[in-house]
Amino acid sequence: MSLTVKLLLLSVCLFFTASCGHEQKKDEKKSGQDPVLNTAEATRFRLLLADLEELKGDDLLKNATLGYFIIDITKQNNKTVVAQFEPTRQMMPASTLKLFVTAPALEIFGPPIIPEVTITNQHSVNWRASKLLRQIGGKLYNHNTKDAGVQAILEFWKSKGLDTKGLYFDDGNGLSRNNAISPKQLVDALYIMTNSKYFLPFYESLPIAGLTGTLHKALKGTAAEGRVRAKTGTIAGVKSFAGYVKSVSGRELIFAIIVNEYSCRTKLIKKKLEAILLRMAEV
User: Fold this and answer.
1) Are 248 and 234 in contact (CB under 8 A)?
2) Domain residues of the chain, as ranges?
């Protein structure tokens, strides 16, 4: 085969490869789905992805329900799905539900509510979250009730473009086992807040791994210390984490991970999930 023919064939191959990549991106835009990692990017996250696969097959979760969603937002105005498993499955969130109350509280009430939001998220104070829910209902619908608060919060998130399908509030603090939320809804809400003028106080209200709030003892002395800001959630048979990670290499991640209906000790599940948080910080 002549050199000219070889070069021609190579050009054709490159053209079709580029075209396919372009079409894939167009298809992702049309479908409304976020782009996923390409092969080269996946290499960066290989240890995290391997640990997540191992978690899915862990004997401790044999009869449990697991869901997670992780995105990379390092590039400005761009998000890429790093990993997902049952991302749209409605699950019991426990106290990570408080994120859906404290975030709108900041935008509705402004700076005066910052101390209340900070205490609520840092220490996961249930009665404060319930109070915020009722206050929101009173502000927007002149009814200081749970139902008015729930309606106001759902409308708030819808107005921000969040898909609220299946989202259910039975309270404002996460104690009820009737609450339902998906890992993706948690992550999408956290992503929406990155564009809020109240993002900084919201971000700073979240516990810091190894340093503050409900995470003050978690992952101390590891790469995750000071790099993970997240809301924790725990009720019987439910463990969840949702928040932000700034990894050692400068990657900025948003994540949510929920486990429902496990039968082992919560301490064991907590350790498993914290290992995933550490792996994200090590990226």
Assistant:
1) no
2) 36-282
